[in-house]
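[SOLVED] Need 3D model of a four-part complex

Original post:
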Amino acid sequence: MPRVSKEQTDLNRTAIEQASSKLFREKGFNGVSVADLMAAAGLTHGGFYGHFSSKDELAAVACATAFSEASERWQKRMQGKADEQQALHAIIDGYLSSQKVRDVGNGCPGAALTTDVAREPLDKPVRAAYMAGTEELVEILTALSPSPDPAVRRKTALAQWSMMVGAMALARATEGYPIANELLAVAREQLLGDITA
Amino acid sequence: MPRVSKEQTDLNRTAIEQASSKLFREKGFNGVSVADLMAAAGLTHGGFYGHFSSKDELAAVACATAFSEASERWQKRMQGKADEQQALHAIIDGYLSSQKVRDVGNGCPGAALTTDVAREPLDKPVRAAYMAGTEELVEILTALSPSPDPAVRRKTALAQWSMMVGAMALARATEGYPIANELLAVAREQLLGDITA
DNA sequence: TGTACATCAGTGAACGCGCGTTCACTGATGTAC
DNA sequence: TGTACATCAGTGAACGCGCGTTCACTGATGTAC
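Solution:
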């Protein structure tokens, strides 16, 4: 039953993007096939190239989608918080949860895709997408820094970002061992302690 | 010209391990084929299963090898340093170099293999190898912490480790953009500043 | 508004290719006398 | 020490399989009258 309404076509494309955004984070770019992605979107593999020119192109789109989702998640956590300190607290606390260790598919693409992106050639579109997404999240952290000096705010945000990504990536790789929880706890303590102090 | 002396057999096995240790870090477990690994060791693919029972088993061995190399590299950097503070300085400074961003194959496996290991099932041997290697490096950092309290030393080491791995992984993923160097610089500043302070 | 037809989103078979692993074979190494 | 032979590390063809991508086809959608 081919040919589908324009609305359905858009829905299908969105479904592919969202399935990819999730599956790429879980299994990496090379860990999921085009057929897997299409099946997860409820379609068959042949129609893929009607939506995207290559798997590479989709990787970039899915990466951007994942960062957008993360950004929205952060915005949502900030809502209703009394001040910047509490907003930052909510973001970091939500980020470094042991639940997120297991749920890579709905977690931060910054931590889930690092090495995948790092292994792509420098001119691949996914690299630009990853970098833009990173800046988007660092921007949010920067806005929440208490310092009046913009340079210090930026530095604080970048240091927080490195620690958040590092602790989460390491906790995932050491999942099941005591050190995984230690890493999360120490990062939380250090990052939240810095805020309160 | 098959059948080779026992000494040569050992040399060949070591060559496979070292080539794998490097290539897995560069391209990931799924990014290199058994044939690639054997070719890099100067052999043909068929002989692989005389040395290892599977690619999975080799992944664990290569992971352990990479961490051992890293540990030795750290020990070497510590040599001749006047005190713990200077030794720690040397390790961190060497770790966060922009040269290491490009030379993944000779860099820290902790940062190079995070997501690869995180995607392996919990019972795979490579996970135990990664965890043991992590503990090995964290141990070194712990020994260099200035605090008299063992719990504090451990926490300091874990926080440093998260920051080092996070900054390096992110710098690699954003290589070529200004933020890559920013991330390295900020992490260095924060980690080395903590020492001096 | 109804009808006739062109469009084109999605299907599934097929393509060439590279993967992890197996295996019959080779011939230098190692050993038994 | 020299010789005859068994061993087995390494070779390369072959296996079944899944990959990214292409393409002829289908039939509901969208359009022109």
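Edit: Chain B is about 75% helix and 0% strand.
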